[in-house]
Write a structure and sequence with these properties.
- Helix 2 (44-56) packs parallel to helix 3 and helix 7 (171-183) packs across helix 8 (200-217).
- The chain is built from 16 helices and ten strands.
- The protein is elongated.
- The chain has two domains: 19-296, TIM Barrel; 313-409, no CATH class.
- By secondary structure, it is of the alpha/beta class.
- Strands 1-2-3-4-5-6-7-8 form an eight-stranded parallel beta barrel, surrounded by seven helices. Strands 9-10 form a two-stranded parallel ribbon.
Length: 412
């Protein structure tokens, strides 16, 4: 049906598939996400619910926290890892830490107590501006990186070597760092757009450069992409990263994270689903987003794609009429797409029709029908009169007040 009724300009002269199969998705909500200055660190009960929902929507790996940050952080990380092991979840745990043995040692302890491997994501800044601020020399950065990787590898844990601010780092130092990390046993390299600096061209350039370095070593090493949203490009950059060879992309639910946040993992999932690159059931994505919102006390903007309150709501007469006409044909799929680029049902949502100053009689009739309320022309006119005089869409309570008043005045 979609191919017959929707002409897709996205596919005209496409260079090739947006991404090859076999990539992974990594969640940072419970680590980088809760570093957002305006959110709260959820309680362990909420974290466990989020963990299960992430598993249900098909996320491959998740950063369960910084176990070296304190006693509570350690216990939360351990509890989450034990839950993964005991419940036999598909999602796999990772932990972040600086290139310091003191940060990685707690990860080793968690792994041993939970009885499952924990992927070590050890990070250090690599850009010239960071070197200047920290008084780090290139040799010091390399030495610290090697020491941290050696410790984790000796303890039998898989290592992802993370260069902070990769997108503003010089190629000569990156080459030395990547080669050293690979030589000492790192199995992944993570490229970070830590301050949201890069554009899609930069994503392509950095991925091509890194792939060449990896190929030159002859090692089987994967490449991660971790993006922030300071320029509003995190989502498109993540899609570009997959197109240009990233093996795994990172994100946070609702895009929470440092400053204006990380790449929104929920929107990455949605776009990959619509592109046909994943076939995961995302009907619980809205529940996941709402859980993260409540647990972190981060309100979802009403106009946020797919999971925002207004994502599938309309009160405009022309829009509503088209949806209603499609429904009258008995074709819910048609109704879900005629005025929506995203099918609501695919993500556990419904098309909603409201009544407001730009509405018509069809809006009112549909609203009444959905609530099994019998209406006549006089009631419809009464509701529309109030709506046309209003400066906003009427709430259910406001519409019901008109209905009650109409019935009282007409002996109903």
């Amino acid at each position: 049906m979609a191919e017959e009724l929707i002409y897709d300009w996205n596919e005209v002269k496409r260079r090739g598939p947006v991404a090859r199969r076999g990539f992974q998705l990594h969640d940072e909500t419970l680590r980088d996400g809760i570093q957002n200055p305006s959110v709260v660190d959820p309680g362990i009960g909420d974290k466990l619910e989020i963990l299960h929902l992430l598993d249900e929507v098909g996320v491959d790996t998740t950063d369960v926290g910084l176990p070296g940050a304190g006693a509570r952080a350690f216990e939360d990380v351990l509890t989450l890892c034990k839950e993964i092991a005991e419940q036999k979840l598909n999602i796999q745990p990772t932990c972040a830490g600086r290139t310091l043995v003191n940060d990685i040692a707690p990860m080793v302890e968690v792994s041993q107590k939970a009885g499952i491997p924990v992927e070590v994501m050890t990070f250090i800044g690599s850009s010239p501006i960071r070197q200047l601020a920290e008084d780090w020399s290139p040799n010091l950065i390399i030495e610290r990186s090697i020491a941290a990787i050696d410790f984790a590898v000796k303890e039998g844990l898989p290592v992802t070597f993370v260069t902070e601010d990769t997108t503003r780092s010089r190629p000569d130092l990156l080459t030395d760092l990547f080669r050293a990390a690979i030589d000492h046993g790192a199995t992944r390299l993570c490229l970070c757009d830590t301050v949201g600096h890069v554009t899609p061209d930069g994503v392509r350039n950095l991925l091509e450069f890194t792939k060449n370095v990896v190929e030159g070593t002859g090692a089987d090493v994967k490449i991660d992409w971790h993006g922030h949203n300071d320029r509003g490009l995190a989502l498109v950059n993540s899609i570009f990263a997959l197109e240009h060879g990233a093996d795994r992309v990172h994100g946070c639910i609702l895009g929470i994270g440092e400053r204006v946040g990380n790449a929104p993992l929920d929107l990455i999932l949605i776009n990959l689903k619509l592109l046909g690159l994943i076939d995961t059931d995302l009907s619980k994505l809205s529940a996941l987003a709402n859980k993260v919102s409540a647990a972190t006390r981060f309100p979802i903007p009403i106009n946020y794609p797919v999971v925002g309150d207004d994502a599938f709501r309309t009160a405009t007469g022309v829009h509503a009429a088209a949806i209603i006409k499609a429904k009258s044909k008995g074709d819910d799929d048609l109704a879900d797409r005629v005025y929506s680029g995203v099918p609501a049902a695919m993500f556990g949502r419904d098309q909603e029709i409201c009544i407001g100053p730009m509405s018509g009689a069809s809006n009112v009739n549909y609203w009444l029908d959905q609530r099994d309320i019998t209406g006549d022309d006089a009631l419809v006119a009464a509701i529309l009169k109030v709506a046309k005089q209003s400066d906003h869409n009427l709430s259910d309570q406001e519409v019901r007040a008109v209905i009650d008043r109409h019935h009282r005045n007409n002996g109903g």
